[in-house]
Amino acid sequence: MSAEEEENAAELKIPDEFLKAKCLMNCEVSLILEHKYEQLQQMADDPMNQMSQVFEKSLQYVKRFSRYKNPDAVRQVREILSRYQLAEFELCVLGNLCPETVEEAIAMVPSIKTRGRAHDDEAIEKMLNDLSLIKKFE
Amino acid sequence: MFFHMVLERNMQLHPRHFGRDLRDKLVAKLMKDVEGTCSGHHGFIVAITGIESVGKGRIRDGTGFVVFPVKYQCVVFRPFKGEILEAVVTMVNKMGFFAEAGPVQIFVSNHLIPDDMEFQPGDIPNYTTSDGSVKIQKESEVRLKIIGTRVDATEIFCIGTIKDDFLGVISDPGANS
Protein backbone atom coordinates (compact mmCIF):
# COMPACT_ATOMS: atom_id res chain seq x y z
CA MET A 1 0.00 0.00 0.00
CA SER A 2 1.44 3.33 -0.97
CA ALA A 3 -0.66 6.31 0.07
CA GLU A 4 -1.55 6.92 3.68
CA GLU A 5 -5.04 8.03 2.62
CA GLU A 6 -6.03 4.55 1.49
CA GLU A 7 -5.70 3.12 4.96
CA ASN A 8 -8.99 1.71 6.17
CA ALA A 9 -9.14 -0.94 8.86
CA ALA A 10 -12.81 -1.63 8.14
CA GLU A 11 -11.82 -3.02 4.75
CA LEU A 12 -8.66 -4.54 6.17
CA LYS A 13 -6.54 -2.04 4.26
CA ILE A 14 -3.63 -1.61 6.59
CA PRO A 15 0.07 -1.54 5.69
CA ASP A 16 1.43 -4.92 4.72
CA GLU A 17 3.88 -5.21 7.58
CA PHE A 18 1.04 -4.84 10.08
CA LEU A 19 -1.13 -7.30 8.21
CA LYS A 20 1.66 -9.86 8.44
CA ALA A 21 2.71 -9.00 11.98
CA LYS A 22 1.18 -10.76 14.92
CA CYS A 23 -1.76 -8.83 16.25
CA LEU A 24 -2.37 -8.81 20.00
CA MET A 25 -5.63 -8.64 21.89
CA ASN A 26 -5.79 -6.33 24.89
CA CYS A 27 -5.84 -9.30 27.26
CA GLU A 28 -2.63 -10.67 25.71
CA VAL A 29 -0.91 -7.29 25.92
CA SER A 30 -1.96 -7.14 29.54
CA LEU A 31 -0.22 -10.45 30.28
CA ILE A 32 2.97 -9.31 28.50
CA LEU A 33 3.13 -5.91 30.13
CA GLU A 34 2.32 -7.20 33.64
CA HIS A 35 5.14 -9.69 33.28
CA LYS A 36 7.53 -6.97 32.17
CA TYR A 37 6.39 -4.72 35.00
CA GLU A 38 7.17 -7.46 37.53
CA GLN A 39 10.63 -7.87 36.03
CA LEU A 40 11.26 -4.15 36.33
CA GLN A 41 10.10 -4.21 39.92
CA GLN A 42 12.66 -6.83 40.79
CA MET A 43 15.50 -4.94 39.14
CA ALA A 44 14.85 -1.44 40.43
CA ASP A 45 13.49 -0.07 43.68
CA ASP A 46 11.35 2.43 41.93
CA PRO A 47 9.77 0.89 38.84
CA MET A 48 7.60 3.91 38.18
CA ASN A 49 10.76 5.85 37.40
CA GLN A 50 11.94 3.27 34.91
CA MET A 51 8.73 3.14 32.95
CA SER A 52 7.98 5.36 30.02
CA GLN A 53 4.70 7.19 29.95
CA VAL A 54 3.69 5.16 26.92
CA PHE A 55 4.22 1.95 28.88
CA GLU A 56 2.31 3.20 31.88
CA LYS A 57 -0.65 4.40 29.85
CA SER A 58 -0.77 1.22 27.80
CA LEU A 59 -0.68 -0.94 30.92
CA GLN A 60 -3.54 0.99 32.52
CA TYR A 61 -5.52 0.84 29.31
CA VAL A 62 -5.19 -2.90 28.70
CA LYS A 63 -5.91 -3.68 32.35
CA ARG A 64 -9.09 -1.68 32.12
CA PHE A 65 -10.25 -3.13 28.82
CA SER A 66 -9.21 -6.77 29.09
CA ARG A 67 -12.21 -9.01 28.57
CA TYR A 68 -10.45 -12.10 29.85
CA LYS A 69 -8.15 -12.09 32.85
CA ASN A 70 -7.10 -15.67 33.16
CA PRO A 71 -4.24 -16.78 30.86
CA ASP A 72 -5.96 -20.05 29.93
CA ALA A 73 -9.07 -18.20 28.82
CA VAL A 74 -6.94 -15.86 26.73
CA ARG A 75 -5.35 -18.83 25.00
CA GLN A 76 -8.74 -20.42 24.38
CA VAL A 77 -10.15 -17.26 22.83
CA ARG A 78 -7.35 -17.16 20.30
CA GLU A 79 -7.67 -20.85 19.59
CA ILE A 80 -11.41 -20.68 18.99
CA LEU A 81 -11.28 -17.57 16.84
CA SER A 82 -8.44 -18.96 14.76
CA ARG A 83 -10.73 -21.78 13.57
CA TYR A 84 -12.74 -19.28 11.54
CA GLN A 85 -10.19 -18.21 8.89
CA LEU A 86 -10.04 -14.67 10.21
CA ALA A 87 -7.22 -12.27 9.53
CA GLU A 88 -5.14 -11.52 12.62
CA PHE A 89 -6.56 -8.02 12.78
CA GLU A 90 -10.17 -9.20 12.63
CA LEU A 91 -9.52 -11.82 15.25
CA CYS A 92 -8.21 -9.23 17.68
CA VAL A 93 -11.00 -6.73 17.11
CA LEU A 94 -13.53 -9.48 17.89
CA GLY A 95 -11.55 -10.60 20.92
CA ASN A 96 -11.32 -7.02 22.21
CA LEU A 97 -14.88 -5.89 21.68
CA CYS A 98 -16.72 -9.18 22.27
CA PRO A 99 -19.81 -8.31 20.20
CA GLU A 100 -22.98 -10.04 21.34
CA THR A 101 -25.05 -10.19 18.16
CA VAL A 102 -24.28 -11.00 14.55
CA GLU A 103 -25.18 -7.45 13.43
CA GLU A 104 -22.88 -5.99 16.04
CA ALA A 105 -20.04 -8.27 14.94
CA ILE A 106 -20.49 -7.23 11.31
CA ALA A 107 -20.62 -3.55 12.29
CA MET A 108 -17.39 -3.95 14.27
CA VAL A 109 -15.57 -5.97 11.59
CA PRO A 110 -17.22 -5.22 8.22
CA SER A 111 -14.47 -7.10 6.40
CA ILE A 112 -15.70 -10.50 7.60
CA LYS A 113 -18.60 -10.16 5.18
CA THR A 114 -16.96 -8.45 2.24
CA ARG A 115 -14.06 -10.67 1.41
CA GLY A 116 -16.21 -13.41 -0.04
CA ARG A 117 -15.29 -15.95 2.57
CA ALA A 118 -17.61 -18.58 3.91
CA HIS A 119 -18.93 -16.45 6.73
CA ASP A 120 -22.67 -16.71 6.78
CA ASP A 121 -24.64 -15.44 9.73
CA GLU A 122 -24.81 -18.92 11.24
CA ALA A 123 -21.05 -19.31 11.33
CA ILE A 124 -20.68 -15.90 12.95
CA GLU A 125 -23.39 -16.71 15.46
CA LYS A 126 -21.64 -19.93 16.42
CA MET A 127 -18.35 -18.08 16.83
CA LEU A 128 -19.94 -15.49 19.14
CA ASN A 129 -21.58 -18.27 21.16
CA ASP A 130 -18.25 -20.01 21.62
CA LEU A 131 -16.73 -16.75 22.79
CA SER A 132 -19.42 -16.03 25.33
CA LEU A 133 -19.06 -19.56 26.70
CA ILE A 134 -15.41 -18.93 27.56
CA LYS A 135 -16.40 -15.76 29.34
CA LYS A 136 -19.04 -17.63 31.31
CA PHE A 137 -16.74 -20.40 32.49
CA GLU A 138 -13.72 -18.25 33.19
CA MET B 1 -4.47 -2.10 17.88
CA PHE B 2 -1.47 -3.66 19.54
CA PHE B 3 0.99 -5.65 17.44
CA HIS B 4 3.96 -7.82 18.16
CA MET B 5 6.60 -7.24 15.53
CA VAL B 6 10.28 -7.35 14.73
CA LEU B 7 12.03 -4.05 14.14
CA GLU B 8 15.62 -3.21 13.39
CA ARG B 9 17.81 -0.44 14.65
CA ASN B 10 21.44 0.51 14.27
CA MET B 11 22.88 1.01 17.73
CA GLN B 12 25.99 3.08 18.32
CA LEU B 13 28.07 2.00 21.25
CA HIS B 14 30.96 3.77 22.92
CA PRO B 15 34.17 1.72 23.09
CA ARG B 16 34.22 1.93 26.92
CA HIS B 17 31.36 -0.61 26.95
CA PHE B 18 33.31 -3.24 25.05
CA GLY B 19 33.92 -6.23 27.22
CA ARG B 20 32.19 -9.22 28.68
CA ASP B 21 28.81 -7.56 29.09
CA LEU B 22 28.76 -5.78 25.74
CA ARG B 23 25.50 -7.43 24.78
CA ASP B 24 23.78 -6.45 28.03
CA LYS B 25 24.93 -2.88 27.60
CA LEU B 26 23.63 -2.89 24.06
CA VAL B 27 20.22 -4.21 25.11
CA ALA B 28 19.93 -1.76 28.01
CA LYS B 29 20.76 1.13 25.71
CA LEU B 30 18.26 -0.11 23.13
CA MET B 31 15.48 -0.21 25.72
CA LYS B 32 16.34 3.25 26.96
CA ASP B 33 16.44 4.63 23.42
CA VAL B 34 13.32 3.15 21.85
CA GLU B 35 10.79 2.24 24.56
CA GLY B 36 8.19 4.94 24.80
CA THR B 37 9.03 6.53 21.47
CA CYS B 38 6.61 7.00 18.64
CA SER B 39 7.19 6.98 14.93
CA GLY B 40 4.54 7.85 12.41
CA HIS B 41 5.05 4.60 10.63
CA HIS B 42 5.20 1.98 13.36
CA GLY B 43 3.25 3.80 16.03
CA PHE B 44 4.15 3.79 19.71
CA ILE B 45 6.81 1.33 20.85
CA VAL B 46 5.39 0.15 24.16
CA ALA B 47 7.86 -2.50 25.29
CA ILE B 48 10.73 -4.59 23.98
CA THR B 49 10.06 -8.26 24.58
CA GLY B 50 13.16 -9.88 23.15
CA ILE B 51 16.25 -9.59 21.00
CA GLU B 52 16.14 -11.46 17.73
CA SER B 53 19.74 -10.95 16.64
CA VAL B 54 22.72 -8.67 17.04
CA GLY B 55 24.63 -8.30 13.81
CA LYS B 56 28.34 -7.73 13.29
CA GLY B 57 29.54 -4.39 14.58
CA ARG B 58 31.22 -1.89 12.28
CA ILE B 59 33.68 0.70 13.49
CA ARG B 60 32.79 4.18 12.37
CA ASP B 61 35.48 6.18 10.68
CA GLY B 62 37.21 8.64 12.91
CA THR B 63 35.23 8.13 16.11
CA GLY B 64 35.88 4.66 17.45
CA PHE B 65 32.16 4.16 18.01
CA VAL B 66 30.84 0.85 16.78
CA VAL B 67 27.49 0.45 15.06
CA PHE B 68 25.57 -2.80 15.65
CA PRO B 69 22.45 -3.66 13.66
CA VAL B 70 20.04 -5.05 16.27
CA LYS B 71 16.81 -6.85 15.47
CA TYR B 72 14.35 -6.84 18.35
CA GLN B 73 10.80 -7.95 19.07
CA CYS B 74 8.49 -5.41 20.55
CA VAL B 75 4.90 -4.57 21.33
CA VAL B 76 3.71 -1.55 19.36
CA PHE B 77 0.45 0.34 19.44
CA ARG B 78 -0.74 1.75 16.12
CA PRO B 79 -4.20 3.22 15.53
CA PHE B 80 -5.74 2.87 12.07
CA LYS B 81 -8.40 4.76 10.24
CA GLY B 82 -11.63 2.75 10.35
CA GLU B 83 -10.61 0.87 13.47
CA ILE B 84 -13.14 0.52 16.29
CA LEU B 85 -11.81 0.55 19.83
CA GLU B 86 -12.68 1.40 23.38
CA ALA B 87 -11.35 4.49 25.11
CA VAL B 88 -11.62 6.47 28.34
CA VAL B 89 -12.95 10.03 28.23
CA THR B 90 -10.42 12.48 29.67
CA MET B 91 -11.93 15.88 28.98
CA VAL B 92 -15.32 17.23 27.90
CA ASN B 93 -16.02 20.71 26.53
CA LYS B 94 -18.47 22.36 24.19
CA MET B 95 -16.35 21.52 21.16
CA GLY B 96 -16.56 17.82 21.85
CA PHE B 97 -14.55 15.45 24.03
CA PHE B 98 -11.08 13.94 24.27
CA ALA B 99 -10.55 10.28 25.00
CA GLU B 100 -7.47 8.14 25.53
CA ALA B 101 -6.82 4.64 24.26
CA GLY B 102 -3.49 3.64 25.72
CA PRO B 103 -0.87 6.16 24.60
CA VAL B 104 -3.01 7.75 21.90
CA GLN B 105 -5.32 10.75 22.20
CA ILE B 106 -8.59 10.81 20.28
CA PHE B 107 -10.80 13.83 19.77
CA VAL B 108 -14.52 13.43 19.08
CA SER B 109 -16.05 16.65 17.82
CA ASN B 110 -19.61 17.56 18.81
CA HIS B 111 -20.61 17.07 15.16
CA LEU B 112 -19.69 13.43 15.55
CA ILE B 113 -21.69 12.93 18.74
CA PRO B 114 -25.30 11.81 18.14
CA ASP B 115 -27.63 14.78 17.61
CA ASP B 116 -29.84 13.92 20.57
CA MET B 117 -26.96 14.45 23.00
CA GLU B 118 -26.64 18.00 24.33
CA PHE B 119 -23.67 19.64 26.02
CA GLN B 120 -24.30 20.45 29.69
CA PRO B 121 -21.82 22.90 31.23
CA GLY B 122 -21.16 22.91 34.97
CA ASP B 123 -18.81 21.36 37.52
CA ILE B 124 -18.77 18.13 35.56
CA PRO B 125 -19.30 19.10 31.93
CA ASN B 126 -20.99 16.33 30.01
CA TYR B 127 -23.06 15.32 27.00
CA THR B 128 -26.49 13.95 27.90
CA THR B 129 -29.46 12.68 25.94
CA SER B 130 -32.72 14.63 26.37
CA ASP B 131 -34.19 11.89 28.59
CA GLY B 132 -31.00 11.77 30.67
CA SER B 133 -30.48 8.04 30.16
CA VAL B 134 -27.06 8.29 28.52
CA LYS B 135 -24.31 10.54 29.75
CA ILE B 136 -20.72 11.12 28.60
CA GLN B 137 -18.43 12.72 31.15
CA LYS B 138 -14.85 12.42 32.34
CA GLU B 139 -13.87 8.77 33.03
CA SER B 140 -16.75 7.39 30.94
CA GLU B 141 -15.78 4.43 28.79
CA VAL B 142 -16.81 4.81 25.17
CA ARG B 143 -16.56 2.69 22.07
CA LEU B 144 -15.57 4.81 19.09
CA LYS B 145 -14.45 4.56 15.52
CA ILE B 146 -11.31 6.30 14.30
CA ILE B 147 -12.03 8.31 11.16
CA GLY B 148 -8.80 10.18 10.79
CA THR B 149 -5.23 10.10 12.02
CA ARG B 150 -2.65 12.85 12.01
CA VAL B 151 0.80 11.45 12.10
CA ASP B 152 3.92 13.46 12.63
CA ALA B 153 7.43 12.38 13.52
CA THR B 154 6.89 11.92 17.25
CA GLU B 155 3.15 11.82 17.80
CA ILE B 156 -0.06 10.31 16.53
CA PHE B 157 -3.33 12.09 17.03
CA CYS B 158 -6.75 10.73 16.09
CA ILE B 159 -10.20 12.00 15.27
CA GLY B 160 -13.05 9.68 16.20
CA THR B 161 -16.81 9.38 15.92
CA ILE B 162 -19.52 7.81 18.06
CA LYS B 163 -22.26 8.58 15.55
CA ASP B 164 -22.75 5.11 14.17
CA ASP B 165 -24.39 1.82 15.06
CA PHE B 166 -23.07 0.08 18.16
CA LEU B 167 -20.85 3.00 19.13
CA GLY B 168 -21.09 5.20 22.21
CA VAL B 169 -20.97 4.84 25.99
CA ILE B 170 -20.22 1.40 27.40
CA SER B 171 -19.96 2.37 31.04
CA ASP B 172 -20.89 5.44 32.97
CA PRO B 173 -18.86 6.35 36.06
CA GLY B 174 -21.88 8.10 37.59
CA ALA B 175 -24.13 5.07 37.24
CA ASN B 176 -22.77 3.20 40.23
CA SER B 177 -22.49 6.08 42.63
UniProtKB/TrEMBL annotation, chain A:
Entry's Gene Ontology cellular component terms: DNA-directed RNA polymerase complex; nucleus
Subcellular location per the Swiss-Prot or TrEMBL entry: Nucleus
Keywords from the UniProt entry: DNA-directed RNA polymerase, Nucleus, Transcription
Signal sequence region: none
Primary site of residence: nucleus
Pfam families reported in the protein's UniProt record: RNA_pol_Rpb4 (PF03874)
Transmembrane segments annotated in the record for this chain: none
Residues covered by the RNA polymerase Rpb4/RPC9 core domain: 16-138
PANTHER family: DNA-DIRECTED RNA POLYMERASE II
Similarity annotation: Belongs to the eukaryotic RPB4 RNA polymerase subunit family.
Protein name according to UniProt: DNA-directed RNA polymerase II subunit 4
UniProt organism field: Salvia divinorum
Recorded name of the encoding gene: NRPB4
Automatic annotation (TrEMBL), chain B:
Domain (RNA polymerase Rpb7-like N-terminal): residue spans on this chain: 8-64
Main localization, broad class: nucleus
Top-rank taxon, per record: Eukaryota
S1 motif domain mapped to chain residues: 79-156
Gene Ontology terms: cellular component: P-body; RNA polymerase II, core complex
MF (Gene Ontology): single-stranded DNA binding; single-stranded RNA binding; translation initiation factor binding
SUPFAM superfamilies listed in its UniProt record: N-terminal, heterodimerisation domain of RBP7 (RpoE), Nucleic acid-binding proteins
Coiled-coil region: none
Record-given protein name: DNA-directed RNA polymerase subunit
